[in-house]
User: Fold this.
Amino acid sequence: MTIEILGEGCSKCNVLKNNVQQAINDLGLHTKVSVDMDPGRIAKLGVLYLPQLLIDGQITPSNIWRSVEDLKELLQTANSQE
Assistant:
């Protein structure tokens, strides 16, 4: 599973990254979180709001204020589909 956060490195991006990392740790997953701040790639993907979470290259629903529990559910679902 690949997990990326698209964003500018703002406080919202950092909160999302920390929450994703906590969810990964809680679930015992062995994956890393990368952050991409390339505006060209963000535009090419058609992302309108930042930060945005991608799992295995797929944009997740655009609710950027996810709780750790919501992220755990999302990651469990994505992990079970592999």
The two ends are 8 Å apart (CA to CA). The mean pLDDT is 90. DSSP finds three helices and four strands in the chain.
